Amino acid sequence: MAKVSAVEKNKKRREMVDRYAEKRAALKAIIKDQDKPIEERFKAQLQLSALPRNSSKTRIRNRCDVTGRPRAYYRKLKMSRIALRELGNNGQIPGLVKSSW
Hints:
The protein has helices at residues 4-32, 38-50, 81-89; strands at 73-74, 79-80. 50% of the residues lie in helices and 4% in strands. A two-stranded antiparallel sheet has the order 1-2.
């Protein structure tokens, strides 16, 4: 199990990303628009950098929904390989069979 504080911090980051997504997208559109004057683009760049760092999507860490483990994470299943194996061995994931030979 991961530390509860790490899992909660990641949840806060996800909420913050959702809260600031539209504002960040609008500022990035202004920055990338070459037709706008450079002063306006620079002002938008300063406004973007003034936003909280945790509102950036790249700050989110993929974590297992079951255990909170940050590594060996399957995006499609939203869980780690260890949690997948345990749930599969217990028969809680339909269609998943442990192979043996």
